[in-house]
């Protein structure tokens, strides 16, 4: 694409704004891209053409940030350098900002590869200008219906937007994702044989009850979570056999261990949804030729991004912070909380309904909070916070959580004090905020964390010390 005077004005303006923000001590992940795109709307495509070793796109409802960061750690273990929107700014402005940061004032790319997390709704705009070499699609679940619209619409937009020459990395266990591989030459699947929590029945809300091709109800022989599992339809559509298949899956407080023949792997992350994130990253790494040894090391040394099962050591004891944003993700977090069977439980749940969270909070009624209601003896207290604290408390009451164990405290700092009140330091304490509460809560935790405190065993593993 020919570089015009508008390209140079946009490039210099974007880089100039970025330099000013750095001097002011601000991150500036989106503003440089926003200003530059106003000057040259085609700038993202113009910059992307310089990445001769290819662009890897990561998209899907849940797990984009963790998958991208897992893959980034594997790429680093292999000695590769690349552009990366690590902060999770996954709209066009943030992506352009990441490319600007890796472009010199003379227009030359500083690296030859890019790893880009892309919001599902942004995929069509992204692929109008950029042809990714590889596209990882994690899963599809209902998420912020007021923003994305119906799930079928989102899926069609993503499927139709990805160029035919792009190599697809697909979750075989999600029928909504696996369908992308039909009639595509370049496709590689990943999946899970079985987890300790897999069942032959499901009581969860599922997005894919029916075959995406003929409309008949899918028959499952095994459910992992949500609609992920082993499925088939009389029309012939079924779960593909994934070349990258996790077997011998085990979980503990220190993470997840699994085998993809013939190699064993471990990740210091909780929740089987993170197993899928690791498999997605691993499959993409295999696709570009990275050896198992480097993949092992990258997964082992991975440190979670902010608010993704992130642990803090406070004077009152350890707490775990993790983002919640839709029913399926929340269900998986609840299962992770309950998996610590030997410990009592305290929760701080923060729910906002700002634009970034999703204005419609009716999704709370699709979360299986009844699992908490069935654990009355282990649940010591649940503090509800945020703008919609009362709505959260009502939902928990109807789920069977005793009212005597529910507390309301809108301000997150006070809520943190409330969740620790009367604690003996032996409980599993989880803080579960929606997006606009995540970083304010994290800042509070960082400030309260014991300075120089000895890291947990999980954190030692993440740093390669364990």
Detail the topology: elements first, then pairings:
Elements: H1 5-23, H2 31-39, H3 43-48, E1 55-59, H4 64-77, E2 83-84, H5 92-101, E3 114-117, H6 123-129, E4 134-137, H7 145-148, H8 151-161, E5 167-171, H9 175-178, E6 187-192, E7 219-225, E8 228-232, E9 244-252, E10 255-260, E11 263-267, H10 272-287, H11 292-300, E12 310-314, E13 317-321, H12 327-338, E14 345-350, H13 370-373, E15 379-385, H14 389-398, E16 406-408, H15 412-420, E17 428-433, H16 435-448, H17 457-462
Parallel strand pairs: 1-3, 1-4, 2-3, 4-5, 5-6, 6-9, 13-17, 14-15, 14-17, 15-16
Antiparallel strand pairs: 7-8, 9-10, 10-11, 12-13
Output the radius of gyration: 22 Å
Could you give a short account of the major beta sheet? 9 strands, mixed
Instruction: Tell me the number of strands.
Output: 17
The low-confidence parts are 454-466
- Oligomer category: single chain
Query: On the 0-100 scale, what is the average pLDDT?
Result: 90
Distance between the termini: 49 Å
| Range of strand content | 15-25%
> With helices defined by DSSP (H or I, 4 residues minimum), what is the helix count?
17
Shape, per Cα inertia axes:
globular
Structural class of the helix and strand makeup?
alpha/beta
Helix content: 25-40%
């Amino acid at each position: 694409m020919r570089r015009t005077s508008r390209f140079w004005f946009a490039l210099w303006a974007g880089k100039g704004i970025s330099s000013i923000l750095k001097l002011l001590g601000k991150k500036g992940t989106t503003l440089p891209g926003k200003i530059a795109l106003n000057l040259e709307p085609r700038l993202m495509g113009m910059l992307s053409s310089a990445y001769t070793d290819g662009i890897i796109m990561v998209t899907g409802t849940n797990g984009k940030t963790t998958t991208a960061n897992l893959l980034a750690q594997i790429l680093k273990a292999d000695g590769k350098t690349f552009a990366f929107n690590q902060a999770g700014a996954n709209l066009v402005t943030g992506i352009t900002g990441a490319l600007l940061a890796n472009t010199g004032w003379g227009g030359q790319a500083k690296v030859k590869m890019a790893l880009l997390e892309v919001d599902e709704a942004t995929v069509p705009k992204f692929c109008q200008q950029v042809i990714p070499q590889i596209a990882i699609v994690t899963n599809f679940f209902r998420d912020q219906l007021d923003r994305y619209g119906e799930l079928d619409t989102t899926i069609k937009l993503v499927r139709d937007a990805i160029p035919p020459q792009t190599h697809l990395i697909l979750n075989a266990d999600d029928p909504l994702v696996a369908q992308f591989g039909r009639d595509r030459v370049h496709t590689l699947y990943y999946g899970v044989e079985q987890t300790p929590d897999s069942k032959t029945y499901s009581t969860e809300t599922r997005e894919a009850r029916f075959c995406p091709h003929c409309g008949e109800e899918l028959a499952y022989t095994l459910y992992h979570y949500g609609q992920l599992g082993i499925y088939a339809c009389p029309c012939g559509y079924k779960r593909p056999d994934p070349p990258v298949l996790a077997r011998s899956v085990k979980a503990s407080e220190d993470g997840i261990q699994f085998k993809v023949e013939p190699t064993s792997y471990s990740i210091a992350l909780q929740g089987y949804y993170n197993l899928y994130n690791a498999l997605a990253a691993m499959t993409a790494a295999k696709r570009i030729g990275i050896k198992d040894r480097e993949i092992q090391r990258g997964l082992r040394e991975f440190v979670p991004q902010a608010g993704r099962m992130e642990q803090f050591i406070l004077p009152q004891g350890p707490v775990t912070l993790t983002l919640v944003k839709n029913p399926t993700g929340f269900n998986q977090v609840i299962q992770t909380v309950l998996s610590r069977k030997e410990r009592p439980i305290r929760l701080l749940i923060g729910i906002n309904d700002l634009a970034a969270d999703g204005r419609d909070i009716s999704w709370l009624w699709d979360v299986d909070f009844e699992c908490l209601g069935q654990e009355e003896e282990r649940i010591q207290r649940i503090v509800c916070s945020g703008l919609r604290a009362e709505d959260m408390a009502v939902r928990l009451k109807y789920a069977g959580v005793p009212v005597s164990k529910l507390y309301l405290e809108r301000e997150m700092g006070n809520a943190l004090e409330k969740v620790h009140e009367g604690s003996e330091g032996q409980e599993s304490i989880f803080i579960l905020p929606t997006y606009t509460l995540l970083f304010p809560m994290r800042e509070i935790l960082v400030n309260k964390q014991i300075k120089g405190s000895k890291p947990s065993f999980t954190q030692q593993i993440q740093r390669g010390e364990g």
